[in-house]
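Could you please review the protein record set out just below?
***
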Amino acid sequence: MPQEFQLTHVDETGAARMVDVSAKDVSARRAVAAGRVRTTAEVIDLLRRDGLPKGDALAVARLAGIMGAKRTPDLIPLCHPIGLHGVTVELTPTDTTVEILVTTKTADRTGVEMEALTAVATAGLAMIDMIKAVDPAASLDEVRVLRKEGGKTGLWERP
């Protein structure tokens, strides 16, 4: 199998391992990820009026996303602990969704896309927890990386 197609997180025997990144150069890295919580127009109306029974769902989800990014290596087994230099969580209500956009930044030897994805998922799950009394069918979907920058591979954007 050519080198570019070999799995990096398993050894020759197939056992999981954390990749050694110590020889990589430290560089500025940035990732942008997105997702959405699907709900009802009634929930969005309550959200906009701060009328949800549990309180300010947007504030709770924003903080949960930041906390999720910070805890990524505790949740994703082979993810390296890195110093996060910035995390922003943007939550935008539409007619029947809350759009989630997260940007993560670091200057380290490995990327921050897992932190961005974990922040999106955590913010979305916190939002569902805040609205489930009103909409038990709310769902989180389309969690994806939109863009990553830095490191050896440079810029990648979702086609």
Q: What stands out?
A: The beta strands are 27-38, 86-93, 97-108, 139-149, 156-157. The longest strand covers residues 27-38.
